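pinging the channel bc i need a second pair of eyes. not urgent but kinda urgent?? the chain im working w is below, pasted from the shared doc
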Amino acid sequence: EDEGGQAVGPLRVCGYLPMDEHLEENRQRIVERLWYLSRIADGKTSALPEPTFRPIQEVNWMEAWKEHYHPIPVGQGLIIVPAWLETPPGGRMPIRIDPGMAFGTGTHPTTQLCLALLEKYVQTVGPAEGWQVIDVGCGSGILAVAALKLGAGRALGVDIDPEAVDASRQNAAGNGVLEALELGVGSVEELRAGQFGLQQAGLVFANILAPVLVRLLDQGLGDLVTPGGWLVLSGILDEQSPDVEAALHKHGLRLVERFQSGDWVALAASQA
């Protein structure tokens, strides 16, 4: 489009017709109306070309994308496995995920950064029993599921999208950790109001987007972390990291580590 919002340059208009008993009738109507349109234009516009028609095979796109989703090794000992595939050999701990309509297949750098930080946290806390996890914006539940498989005693995942909560429940069941995972619709406000079984945890994840993270920090996201625990923030573009780091400092949180993968950043913070 030009600055006035008018279309410029060659244009192609595509449409789809169901291949049913009305196909030939609909095709003829399109041809006729385009002919009339050419006559109405009367030389004021370029001649309209003859329409072309070709059959397109119907595809179930919700299933087709799965062909391109393969097991992904992450960190030192994890592997994200599509729930419809067998776990590959090699000894890594499988996190079986079918995202459904929720965000979080495990292919995005932000998720992988969070999983690597989760592994590091597990190594830091050592054999401590009963450590707990809260995931704010849990998506497919991949982080909470991974935490439970790595030894967390209890996890809570919340999301503002009910479909994400449903996907998390199914993925937790598929990984055999559903009994230790509490799920619900909500965010920081509901957590701080005590609407769920956990109000604080030693490890708190929020893998969302930088502007949302800043807003959640203003709402008390840091208060969900127990003394000595970690707050892991991700979904942050490199150029947005200073804003999130400033918000951490503003709310009395100390930046422990900064991890980067390409343009994406994850931050680990603790109570100052």
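so The mean pLDDT is 89. and Helices lie at 23-41, 61-64, 109-125, 142-149, 162-174, 188-192, 210-218, 241-250. — does that match what u expected or am i reading it wrong
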